[in-house]
Amino acid sequence: MDTLKPVVMLLVEDDPADQKLIKKSMLDQKIDNELIIVETGEDALEYLAHSKSAEAGYPTPDLILLDLNMPGMGGREFLRRLKADDVLDTIPVVILTTSDSEQDILATYKLQAAGYVKKPPTLDGFREVFSRLQEYWFVICKRVPQGQLSCTAN
Amino acid sequence: MDALKTAVVLLVEDDLGDRKLVREALTNLGMSNELYVTASGEEALEYLQRSKCGDVESPRPNLILLDLNMPGIGGKEFLRRIKVDDDLCSIPVVVLTVSDEETDIQESYKLHAAGYVQKRASPEEFQKVVSKLAKYWFETSSLVKS
Questions:
Q1: Which residues of A touch B117 (CB under 8 A)?
Q2: B89: closest chain A residue by CA
């Protein structure tokens, strides 16, 4: 993996308590990471539109962490729109939710989620989840090559 | 660790040495009985067809590990075909290959691979990689039930 650049994660999460827990657990990770937080699917799409245009201050995420139950379009609709976008569809999306309903699991994998993680109840639980998540996505997995997501590339 | 023992993994891999490495790595995690192996994309599609028909010898995989360079349709075409299948498209597919070509990485994610892992040459490194992969998919992530 490219260890020089921090990995960029976009967290789509409306709950301030969960945002705080995730932020805290990220601070303890071995991998240098940049966590960007937006509160709704609409905000996430707006952020990604800036990324597509290669605007400064809107780095393209290497991974998206997505809550399901949010005001507005919600996580599933965001995922559907992202995966229908010819430029953004290569960004892996991991669901991070309190729901463990079989219906949500099946529906989100059908929409091409790349993992479905039930939120743990404690900070230590979050740390463990993020450690494993990062070891998978940023240690053993190859990332989508930089510069190939932007509309202005090539 | 219970989830590890119940997961069904389909490995699509033509190389005998690599099959052995994956099998050994999963065995060390307590998973040997749940690994099913096919040698090509065509065979994997046949396996999945049987699993759709309820064949008990071909249980539906919770996860597919896919080599790219194989005879016949190859890994990418296999991936493309299962992702357009309304039923099979919910199975996450992790690419496991020697290739680190940027085009292979880009195309695999474009075809909705749920990860792109480069094979390691040494058995020790291979073991570490499979262990991290298993911890993510079988202990951290929930999967669609078979």
A1: 140-142
A2: A110
CA proximity to A35, closest of A9, A66, A56: A9
Among chain A residues, CA nearest to B144:
A106
Listed as own residue / partner, the contacts of A75-78 with beta carbons closer than 8 Å and 24 or more positions apart are A75/A12, A75/A41, A75/A108, A76/A107, A76/A108, A76/A111, A77/A41, A78/A12, A78/A41, A78/A44, A78/A45
Q: What is the pLDDT of residues B93-128, one digit of tens each?
A: 999 999 999 999 999 999 999 999 999 888 899 999
CA–CA distance, A99 with A142 (Å, rounded to integer): 29
- pTM for the full model? 0.93
**Which amino acid is located at B75 in the chain?**
G
Whether ipTM exceeds 0.90: yes
pLDDT, tens digit, 9 for 90 and up, residues B51-84: 999 999 999 999 999 999 999 999 999 999 999 9
Q: Between residues 67 and 96 of chain A, which touch chain B (CB distance below 8 Å)?
A: 83, 89-92, 94
Question: Which tokens go with A34?
Answer: 């940049």
Please judge whether B92 and A141 are an interchain contact, meaning their C-beta atoms are less than 8 angstroms apart. Answer: no
